[in-house]
């Protein structure tokens, strides 16, 4: 009659110290005395996971929105910059500026949370949520950029390596290959402006 371990651990991480034992204890009691007898063990475990997801959504909503806003702003700037100068290569200085801008925004959010709660662990949680949301949106914008401006940016000097890999890849479409590369990069690259 134990709830899913990772869900219970996640719940305890989400809660502030003063609420941790009370809320997790109440949820455990409701799980054991209400959910398991009426739903069965398997359905009760899913019920518990949904309750924890509700706590996660409640505690992550604001940081998620901040991360989405940062990613959207940077993604739009990237698209506008490419529309204005589609053949301009991404240089090291610009990449560093993008990275520093992202890190500065994340740091500001983390400092604000630490200032308010005086808990570094809260800043780490919020920073992680903001960072993941920013990266997801920024990489999505990079994929949109590739699809909108492929005909122009394929002639950029910084695309020559990608074009060489495409010629060796066996892919029939540069667009499909470029999307494949950008999706693959999104799992391994820093949050800076995606390079090619």
User: What form results from the Cα inertia axes?
Assistant: elongated
Q: How far apart are the termini? A: 51 Å
Number of strands: 0
- Helicity level: over 70%
Number of domains: 2
Task: Return Rg in Å.
Answer: 22 Å
Integer average pLDDT: 84
* H/E element sequence: HHHHHHH
Ranges where pLDDT stays below 50 over 5 or more residues in a row are: 190-196
Q: What is the overall number of helices?
A: 7
SS-based class:
mainly alpha
If you had to describe this structure to a student in words, what would you say it looks like?
The protein folds into 2 domains: 5-53, no CATH class; 60-186, no CATH class. It starts with a helix and ends in a 10-residue tail after the last helix. The longest helix is centred in the N-terminal third of the chain and has 44 residues, at 41-84. The protein is elongated. By secondary structure, the protein is an all-alpha fold. The protein contains 7 helices and no strands.
Structure characteristics:
single chain, 196 residues, mainly alpha, 2 domains, 7 helices, disordered C terminus
Short précis:
Helices cover 82% and strands 0% of the residues. With 196 residues, the protein is mainly α.
Indicate the topology.
Blueprint: H1 5-14, H2 17-39, H3 41-84, H4 92-117, H5 120-153, H6 160-169, H7 174-186
Helix pairs in contact: 1-3, 2-3, 3-4, 3-5, 4-5, 5-7, 6-7
């Amino acid at each position: 009659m134990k709830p899913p371990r990772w869900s219970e651990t996640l719940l305890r991480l989400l809660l502030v110290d003063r609420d941790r034992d009370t809320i997790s204890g109440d949820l455990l009691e409701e799980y054991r005395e209400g959910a398991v007898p009426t739903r069965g063990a398997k359905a009760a475990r899913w019920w518990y996971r949904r309750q924890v997801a509700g706590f996660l959504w409640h505690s992550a909503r604001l940081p998620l929105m901040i991360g989405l806003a940062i990613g959207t702003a940077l993604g739009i700037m990237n698209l506008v910059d490419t529309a204005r100068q589609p053949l301009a290569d991404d240089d090291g200085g610009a990449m560093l500026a993008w990275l520093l801008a992202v890190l500065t925004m994340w740091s500001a959010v983390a400092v604000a949370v630490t200032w308010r709660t005086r808990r570094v662990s809260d800043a780490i949680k919020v920073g992680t949520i903001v960072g993941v949301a920013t990266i997801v949106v920024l990489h999505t914008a990079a994929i949109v950029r590739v699809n909108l401006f492929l005909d122009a940016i394929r002639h950029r000097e910084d695309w020559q390596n990608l074009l060489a890999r495409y010629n060796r890849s066996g892919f029939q479409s540069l667009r499909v290959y470029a999307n494949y590369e950008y999706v693959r990069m999104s799992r391994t690259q820093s949050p800076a402006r995606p390079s090619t």
